[in-house]
Amino acid sequence: METRYGVQIFGCLGDFRQDPAGFFQRLAAMGYRQIEPCVLFGDGSGFPQALADRVWKPREVSRFQAMMEPLGLSLSSCHVFCPDPLAAADEMLALAEKTSIDTYVVNCPRDIEKTYRAFAQTCHGLAARLAEGGVALWLHNNAPEIRARTAGPDGEATVMEAILQEAGDKLGAQVDTGWVLYGGVDPAAFLRRLGGRLRSVHFKDMAEGCQAREGAERFAVLGAGVTDIPAVMEAIPQGMPILVDQDVTRGGFFADLEASIQALRAVRP
After folding, report:
1. Strand, helix or coil at 74?
2. How distant, in Å, are the alpha carbons of 150, 201, 245 from that of 165?
3. CA distances from 54 to 2, 11, 37, 47, 78 (A)
4. Residue among 20, 37, 43 nearest 91 (CA)
5. pLDDT tens-digit readout, 186-228
6. Where are the domains of the chain?
7. Spatial CA neighbour of 232 closest among 178, 167, 163, 157
8. What is the reported pTM?
9. Residue 204 three-state SS
10. Rounded to whole angstroms, how far apart are CA atoms 256 and 43?
């Protein structure tokens, strides 16, 4: 059975905004079957203006979904951009009712090492509220919550694992393999460690020696970096959503996304 690969479009929002219809057409032609957007709830306070301008707004989602579906592209999960996600729960549920969104994904705050217990309670409350409307909640990782450690009943764990444990079983995990690696943990081992909490995987590649690099120099096009794609793929259950998540490009996002799906299909068609 063919795997339905997708793209998290955070990094390529600039290309998307130039020509949304053409963007969808090009990704569909490459063989992608899912788009995971970033949706801004509220007025964008606290986010850089360029980012606030590029991310999707709730009023746009139905129109973009109508562009996607005739091309075989689905909309299921989406990332939440909002300073207070719990306060936006009703707006998130309202959007899910109007669209095919069935899952929202949140990122940790920047000071997560100090605030992870409070954030876990926010996730607990938001997951419970969304579940009332049949909508799931996942936690996506960056590097800090992987690099930071906390003591637990089973020994030392990453802060991400601590958040999942304290937030309760309604919170799933969407693991970004590149940020796990950058945080100093083997991605394949981390995926296996999460077990049933794993819901989705973002494939991101990193350059050799990435931990000693900064900015764009940390990243590599999927298949051209240090990620052991076969090992990571072996740790992902069949049928689980797999999305390419590339933050920057040197040669153009469309060329990179073409190379990325080829690298993935070489391991799991």
Report:
1. strand
2. 12, 19, 25
3. 32, 10, 11, 11, 15
4. 43
5. 999 999 999 999 999 999 999 999 999 999 999 999 999 999 9
6. 5-265
7. 178
8. 0.97
9. coil
10. 32
Cα angle 228, 34, 22; round to 5: 110
Span 55-100, pLDDT tens digits: 999 999 999 999 999 999 999 999 999 989 999 999 999 999 999 9
Report the distance separating Cα 267 and Cα 269, nearest Å.
6
- 195's CB contacts (< 8 A; 6+ apart) are none
| Distance, CA of 134 to CA of 128 (rounded, Å) | 10
Among the listed residues 10, 11, 65, the one whose alpha carbon sits nearest the alpha carbon of residue 38: 10
171 near 119, Cβ under 8 Å? no
Say how far apart CA 206 and CA 247 lie, in whole Å: 11
Instruction: Point out which residues pair with 106 in neighbouring strands.
Output: 139
5-265 CATH: 3.20.20.150
Structure tokens given for 246: 């590339």
